[in-house]
Specification:
The complex is a heterodimer of chains A (213) and B (348).
Chain A (H helix, E strand, L loop, with lengths): L1 H11 L3 H13 L4 H21 L5 H25 L6 E6 L7 H12 L3 E4 L6 H11 L3 E5 L7 H12 L7 E5 L5 H7 L3 E2 L3 H12 L4
Parallel strand pairs in A: 1-2, 1-3, 3-4, 4-5
Helix pairs in contact in A: 1-2, 1-3, 2-4, 3-4, 4-5, 5-9, 6-7
Chain B lengths: L3 H6 L9 E4 L4 H4 L4 H4 L3 H15 L4 E3 L6 H6 L43 H15 L5 E6 L1 H9 L1 H10 L1 H24 L3 E5 L10 H21 L6 E3 L8 H6 L4 E4 L5 H11 L2 E6 L3 H4 L2 H14 L6 E7 L6 H13 L9
Parallel strand pairs in B: 1-8, 2-3, 3-4, 4-5, 5-6, 6-7, 7-8
The chains are: A alpha/beta (213), B alpha/beta (348).
Chain lengths: 213, 348
């Protein structure tokens, strides 16, 4: 459907006003909100992810597309709820204790949301016990930990240890990311996965949840 | 006087490759204190710098702990510090950014390095260090680069969005940031130090290189020129991440020591820097220092040194070392440097 392709393209271009207008137009034409989400927003953000992966798109453009996506989602959400639409999974995320950096975490949240996942973002400087409490409350499938400093990356291990001690590690998969960490560190601290960037984080979450596309 | 670093910056081959580990919050560990303690007390900061010098023996020292916070705090941002032995690094969250709820750059006031925020504290430590070690080793006061300072003033996410939606405001903010940096850098130069500028928020991992050229390069070049006029011979500019695609603009800033971070291509840096006779510091991955043995670190350092092709402007460094990184791990790099035998440079 051409209008849905246009929606994906406007989203990729970060044209918020056009995305809002087209979302409303599609709903008025009785197009299913789930279809608008899948074939418009998720398709558009997939294109954004592909461009990021190839180095053809940078953070400012991605944030602009994310703004357009949020605006459209705000309109769609009540319709999706009425339709009983299901997300692809719930991801709980946060920057670990002692670390106030949030831009990398936010970018991962944007790309996961754009891929159809529900995000519970705890914010920054989150101690292990708060992650444990939030896992009990929100029951996510994935927990994503971020750290941008070599000093605070050590708190990823204490968070993973706390989740394990609370007996929750068989219910959730934990992935890590951030400038100072790598796959070796993820293996060392017992994380289930590592992603170098936001696009690969989406791939990793899908892989861990057995989602093929 | 240890002239190794200066020689490398002039592309004159020193007796061995200079070693510049990135020690900021880790300084505090040398005196058994936390980064929040050391960055708020000039005497502790001086003691930590002296301990770093004695135990690590780097070829230059950097006067800075939480390097991106000082100018932003002096302008009015709120820094979160940690107490009760918490060794986290002080930082400015998005709610601490002075322009989080406003775009009015004209509302910002230029700070006075003699009295605003912690600027006087760092200048006091710089003066003390010049007295004690000024004749032994190069000392550099850490200043923010303009984009990183702007990111702290506005909040990073907001600044990145503004680059697309209101580039005029970004230019205005970068102009203000440049004036703040000049004032703070002047104070270091007057204290008898050099300066080293950090601008990793402008990394090409985040900001498109063309945006760097258009928005960030002009004020950065202005700052470098200004410091040269003030008598600073060497201006290192540190931008982390993969800056290979930014190399032309990076060299165009006029800085004579740039960073080839872990993800960047050392061969491209070698080619471009040697053509322009500019020094570059190649970083070893900071995660290596947490997860590997000293023997592995030494091997990795040796591999990096072998990549240098005996370029006289080559400096070996590290990513930011975590608080508590064992000394044996840092010493492993020095061992590699001491054992590495360079081919004589052409003409020497």
């Amino acid at each position: 459907m051409k209008e849905l392709q246009d929606l994906a393209l406007y989203l990729e271009q970060g044209q918020a006003q056009k995305v809002i207008a087209l979302t409303e137009q599609l709903l008025a034409a009785s197009i299913s909100p789930q279809r608008i989400l899948n074939d418009g927003l998720i398709a558009g953000m997939a294109a954004v992810g592909e461009k990021m992966r190839n180095g053809d798109m940078y953070l400012p453009e991605v944030l602009q597309s994310a703004g357009a996506m949020q605006a459209s989602l705000k309109i769609l959400k009540p319709h999706l709820a009425r339709e009983g639409a299901q997300s692809r999974g719930r991801v709980l995320m946060g920057t670990v204790k002692g670390d106030m950096h949030d831009i990398g975490k936010n970018l991962v949240g944007i790309m996961l949301q754009g891929a159809g996942f529900e995000i519970v973002d705890l914010g920054v400087n989150i101690p292990p016990e708060k992650f444990v409490e939030a896992i009990k409350t929100h029951q996510p499938s994935i927990v994503a930990l971020s750290a941008m400093l070599t000093t605070t990356m050590l708190n990823m291990k204490s968070t993973i240890d706390s989740v394990r001690l609370a007996g929750l590690s068989s219910y959730v998969k934990i992935i890590i990311g951030g400038a100072p960490v790598n796959q070796g560190y993820a293996d060392q601290i017992g994380a289930d996965g590592y992603a170098r960037d936001a696009v690969l984080a989406v791939d990793k979450v899908k892989q861990l949840l057995g989602i093929s596309a | 006087m240890n002239t190794r670093y200066e020689q490398a910056l002039n592309c004159q081959q020193p007796d061995r490759v200079p070693f510049l580990p990135a020690i900021y919050e880790h300084k505090a560990w040398f005196v058994g204190k936390t980064p929040s303690d050391v960055c708020r007390d000039p005497k502790l900061l001086t003691a930590a710098l002296l301990a770093e010098y004695e135990r690590v023996k780097p070829d230059a020292l950097t006067i800075g702990v939480d390097i991106y916070n000082v100018e932003a705090e002096a302008v009015g941002c709120k820094v979160t510090y940690y107490d009760e032995g918490n060794n986290s690094v002080p930082s400015i969250g998005h709610e601490g950014a002075i322009l989080q709820g406003s775009d009015d750059v004209t509302s910002l006031r230029l700070p006075d390095p003699r009295m605003d925020g912690r600027m006087p504290l760092f200048i006091e430590a710089a003066k003390a260090m010049v007295k004690i070690l000024g004749k032994e080793i190069p000392l550099r006061g850490a200043v923010s680069g303009p984009f990183s300072l702007a990111a702290h003033l506005a909040g990073p996410q907001k600044l990145f969005l503004l680059t697309m939606m209101q580039p005029g405001i970004v230019k205005e903010l970068l102009g203000f940031a440049a004036e703040v940096i000049k004032l703070y850098g002047n104070a270091f130069i007057e204290a008898g130090c050099g300066v080293v500028m950090f601008d990793s928020f402008a990394s090409s991992d985040l900001l498109p290189p063309e945006m760097y050229r258009e928005l960030v390069l002009p004020p950065t070049r202005g700052i470098v020129d200004h410091f040269h006029q003030k008598g600073a011979r060497n201006i290192p500019l540190i931008i982390g991440g993969n800056t290979t695609s930014l190399l032309e603009a990076y060299l165009g800033t006029g800085a004579n020591n740039i960073l080839c971070d872990v993800k960047a291509d050392p061969q491209e840096f070698l080619k471009r820097c040697s053509a322009m006779k500019k020094a570059f510091r190649r970083n070893l991955d900071s995660a290596l220092f947490l997860e590997s043995s000293p023997a592995d670190i030494k091997n990795r350092a040796m591999r990096s040194l072998e990549e240098s092709n005996s370029y006289p402007g080559y400096i070996l460094g590290t990513g930011v070392l975590a608080y508590g990184t064992p000394l044996t791990h840092i010493a492993a790099v020095r061992e590699a440097i001491d054992e590495y035998e360079r081919a004589p440079a052409a003409g020497q």
